[in-house]
Structure formats: structure tokens, C-alpha cells
Description:
single chain, mainly beta, Leucine-rich repeat, LRR (right-handed beta-alpha superhelix)
Amino acid sequence: MWNMEGNSLFGALPTNIGEMVALQAVSFDANFLSGTIPTELAALPAIRELILSNNFIGGTIPPEIGNMFTLEILNLEGSMQSTQSLTGPIPAQIGNLAFLRKFLMA
């Protein structure tokens, strides 16, 4: 697990995170990240856990997230703490995630 929890990180998630092809789990919980969820995350072929909770992430959940076929845990909880919040419907492509055990939003 690449654990970046509570490190007071600011700014947007870098789009080149999709180049970390061996990444299996990442947590950015409890930071000050803003911007949108990068579509490049869908390029992570081995990702099992993606935790973006307790940040200031906004925009829509990208439909490309449905290409993260190995994903077991998706935590977006608490990502609506500011005027910039997640909007729109949950993409139907989430249904492609056969191994998804936990999908948290609030």
C-alpha cells in the first residue's frame, strides 16, 4: 500500500499516477487534495484499493473507473467537504467492477 494519509498534501492528484502500473493499493485519505478524479487512474492494471476520502475532490466520477477491473475497495467518503464536490450520477460502468466489495460515498 502506498499510504499518503494525513500528509497535508495540497493540489490535484497527478495524472501520471496512471503510470505506476504495479500499484495495488493507495490511500490519500485526510489531505487537502482538490480538482477531479483523474481518468488516468483507470490505467492501473493491478489496483485493488483506491482511497480518496476526506479531501476536497470535485467534479464527476469518471466512467473510466469502470475499467479498473481488479478494484475491490473504492472510498470517496467525505470528498464533499467543500463547495467543490462530487456531482452527477454514479457511472453505470461501476457495474463492470466484478471484484468490488466496498464502495463508500457520503
